[in-house]
Amino acid sequence: MPLKTFTARLVVLVIATLLTAERAPAENLVIELGIRNGTLPAEQRLIKVRQGDELILRWTSDKRVTVHLHGYDIEQAIAPGAPVTMRVSARASGRFPIELHGTKPGDESTLGYLEVHPR
Ligand SMILES: [Cu+2]
């Protein structure tokens, strides 16, 4: 085929690939998070997702605590033996701290981070 046609086809292919990559479908993710003695296991401390993903965070805790996802400002109390589901539509990109709020005022610590990467 003539070079001009080949180049044109290549350009179309590249554009199509870029468009497809950008339109990669959002994912529905279920993420298990188990608090033990006020902390998360090391491998659960950083949650990486992509913008537009729909998250279900399934929390358990061995003590009565309140979990606070900053930025999205979602707060949820968790009691031992009663898993809690937190739904998050990852609309905003960025790095958001997840804090543990204890029973006493000022009793706060960082459990981990939610990272929402731009699509
Ligand atoms: Cu907080």
Mean pLDDT value: 87
Shape: elongated
Order of helices and strands: HEEEEEEEE
Helix content: 10-25%
Structural class: alpha/beta
Percent in strands: over 45%
> Quick one: CATH class?
Mainly Beta
Q: Work out the helix count.
A: 1
Are there runs of 5+ residues with pLDDT below 50, and where?
A: none
Largest sheet: 5 strands, mixed
CATH architecture: Sandwich
* The named CATH superfamily: Cupredoxins -  blue copper proteins
Order the strands across the largest sheet as they lie in space. Answer: 2-8-7-4-5
Care to count the β-strands? 8
Instruction: Report the end-to-end length measured between terminal Cα atoms.
Output: 36 Å
Domain count: 1
Notes on the protein architecture:
It is a single chain. The protein is an alpha/beta fold. The protein has a single domain, classed as Cupredoxins -  blue copper proteins (Immunoglobulin-like, Sandwich). The chain has 1 helix and 8 strands; from the N terminus they run H-E-E-E-E-E-E-E-E. The protein has one helix at 3-22; strands at 28-35, 46-50, 54-61, 65-69, 74-78, 84-89, 94-101, 108-117. The strands form 2 sheets. The chain has a 5-stranded mixed sheet with strand order 2-8-7-4-5, with no helix packed on it. A 3-stranded mixed sheet has the order 1-3-6, with no helix packed on it. Strand 4 and strand 5 form a beta hairpin. The longest helix has 20 residues, at 3-22. It is elongated, with a radius of gyration of 20 Å. It starts with a helix and ends with a strand. The model has no long low-confidence stretch (mean pLDDT 87).
